[in-house]
Specification:
InterPro entries: CEMIP_beta-hel_dom (IPR055401), Fibrocystin (IPR052387), Pectin_lyase_fold/virulence (IPR011050). With about 100 residues, the protein is mostly beta strands. The protein is about 0% helix and about 45% strand. It has a domain of about 70 residues.
């Protein structure tokens, strides 16, 4: 979880590139997702790029009240819940591109 004590300060920057995430997250637990941007405000230097997220127990990538994050070139496979989830629908400027979800 990337979470800053104050939004828009860039104190919790997440730069995940070319990693494998597997058997992560906690089933049926709110807020326990494998990759989770949580209440960070604007984060134009954060990204999840070229990653593999598979066999997880709760979603894959969750963006909660965080803006301007780049999510690209990821493979998401065999997860519980939504692949990429915008939690409150107030998140803006996030780029979600070249994602390959499958069952």
């Amino acid at each position: 979880m990337m979470h800053a004590p104050e939004p828009d300060m860039n104190w919790a920057v997440g730069r995940l590139s070319h990693i494998e995430v597997t058997h992560a997250g906690q089933a049926f637990r709110l807020g326990r997702y494998p990759i989770h941007f949580h209440l960070n405000g604007h984060q134009n230097s954060s990204y999840v790029r070229g990653c593999s997220v598979h066999r997880t127990f709760n979603r894959a990538i969750n963006i909660h009240n965080t803006h301007d994050v780049m999510i690209e070139h990821n493979v998401i496979y065999h997860i519980m819940g939504g692949a990429v989830f915008l939690e409150d629908s107030v998140e803006t400027g996030n780029t979600l591109q070249y994602i390959s979800p499958s069952l």
